[in-house]
């Protein structure tokens, strides 16, 4: 099932124009990513504190469709999917009042932290990705029907 994260936009998330600062939407997406991996039993402290492997972001992008303001109640849906034995991508959809206000994407690579070389996913990440594989396939089918 698609993972959903709820978040209220805070004043600190906004810029002088009163809308979410562009980089902060990626921070909010990363919060959703953290909650998603925690929801399958991955210990966040162990995952992020001096781990033997890491998953740095190698690419990120965001498209904004409507302004996002302080007080808005966000629903962030994410679907991670595997791109090989050492890369995965996460597609995010951010909604306010059932309207898609932004879409984002992050691409991660799995590395050994001591050598900085790429390596295959550990079992816990493979399981997290597999749990979400069917959701990704369904989303792609829906998208292909929308294009027709």
Helix and strand composition category: alpha+beta
The CATH homology group name: Hotdog Thioesterase
- Supply the CATH class: Alpha Beta
What is the helix content?
25-40%
CATH architecture: Roll
Q: State the helix count.
A: 3
* Strand line-up in the sheet with most strands: 1-4-5-6-3
User: Tally of extended strands?
Assistant: 7
Distance between the termini: 25 Å
Sequence of secondary-structure elements: EHHEEEEEEH
Q: Tell me the β content.
A: 25-35%
Shape: globular
Rounded average pLDDT: 92
Write the CATH fold name.
Thiol Ester Dehydrase, Chain A
- Tell me the domain tally: 1
Largest sheet: 5 strands, antiparallel
Low-confidence segments, ≥5 residues, pLDDT <50?
none
Which radius of gyration do the C-alpha atoms yield?
16 Å
Q: How would you sum up this structure, described in words?
A:
The protein has 148 residues and is an alpha+beta fold. It contains three helices and seven strands. The strands form two sheets. Strands 1-4-5-6-3 form a five-stranded antiparallel β-sheet. A two-stranded antiparallel sheet has the order 2-7. A hairpin with a 4-residue loop joins strand 4 (73-82) and strand 5. The mean pLDDT is 92.
């Amino acid at each position: 099932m698609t993972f959903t994260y709820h978040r209220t936009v805070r004043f600190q998330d906004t810029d002088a124009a009163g809308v979410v600062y562009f980089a902060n939407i990626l921070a909010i997406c990363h919060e959703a990513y953290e909650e998603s991996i925690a929801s399958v039993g991955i210990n966040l402290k162990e995952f992020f504190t001096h781990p033997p492997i890491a998953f740095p972001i190698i690419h990120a992008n965001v498209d904004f469709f409507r302004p996002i303001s302080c007080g808005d109640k966000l629903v962030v849906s994410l679907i991670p999917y595997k791109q090989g034995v050492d890369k995965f991508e996460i597609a995010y959809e951010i909604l306010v009042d059932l309207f898609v206000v932004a879409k984002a994407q992050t691409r991660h690579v799995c590395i050994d932290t001591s050598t900085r070389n790429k390596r295959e996913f550990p079992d816990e990440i493979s399981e997290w990705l597999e749990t979400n594989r069917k959701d990704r396939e369904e989303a792609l089918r829906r998208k292909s029907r929308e294009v027709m």
